[in-house]
Amino acid sequence: MSIPTLPSVVLVHGGFVDGSGWQGVHELLVADGYRVAVVQNPTVSLEGDVAATKQVLDDLGGPVVLVGHSYGGVVVTEAGTDERVAAIVYIAAFAPDKGESVNTLIADPPPGAPVPPILPPRDGCLFLDRDKFAASFAGDLPPAQAQFMADSQVPWGVGALSGSVTDPAWSSKPSWYLVATDDRMIPPPAQRAMSERAGATVIESPGSHSVYVSRPEAVAELIKTAAAAVTTSD
Known about the structure:
38% of the residues lie in helices and 18% in strands. The protein contains ten helices and ten strands. It starts with a strand and ends with a strand. It comes from Pseudonocardia aurantiaca.
């Protein structure tokens, strides 16, 4: 009797935060028998973040379900062409096409879309206004947790926003996408447009941009769905 071999899962965070926000998702997946690793992106350049992701792939081998939140979607789109990656999962994430970057994707927001409270660059880095962080990034988290995220922001290098994708992994790998319907950082219409273009299998969930923190069960279930689709038997 053949025994299914579960793929590993690699979780990639976005800008302004670190990998600790994945803890709830990590715990759920590990409890179900998955080997899970969390990438700690420097978020200085796309090239550097792709390199950090591939270091984790080197440790795990394959096959891997590669998961990206927000800017992490750009990272997994670029890194996901690696032969060890079997599937891509986007969580309220950017899913660029060839030649696109965060900068190009946010250049023409949908009419009436909320404007993220990004402060002017300082020493080549971006931050969100701490007083407006909760409303824009973490509106469905407890106030104290959202405040901690605001106060522990990771500088996001302006160079990372201009990093463009050379070969989008979604054009050659199966992909899944979770649209956060209450997102005030990446408008839901933009998420739907990117997921449709990528040919992703899409689910929608109530949730802020921090849906990976606030609704880890929904996120983990989508990841498991992707993993099941690419699971092999020995």
